[in-house]
Amino acid sequence: MFLAMVAAMKKQSVVKIDPEIMGGTPCFAGTRVPVRALLDYIEGGYPLGEFLEDFPSVTREKAVAFLEEVDERMLVAA
Prior knowledge:
The protein is mainly alpha-helical and about 80 residues long. It is about 55% helix and about 5% strand.
């Protein structure tokens, strides 16, 4: 399901899938930070602020936009 959500987000600038960047792993556009890293932080109980501190190349706006998109797609899939 995660890959389906990411594939649908390819159209948006928040997530980029490029075989030349991290072997095609879905990353935040303009970075080499996998979007899975943010989900792992959240699943681990870490706050968004800590993720942003650890990955300064990801803006708060990109992280929030990604989470909103995931939330929307989860509601549609439910």
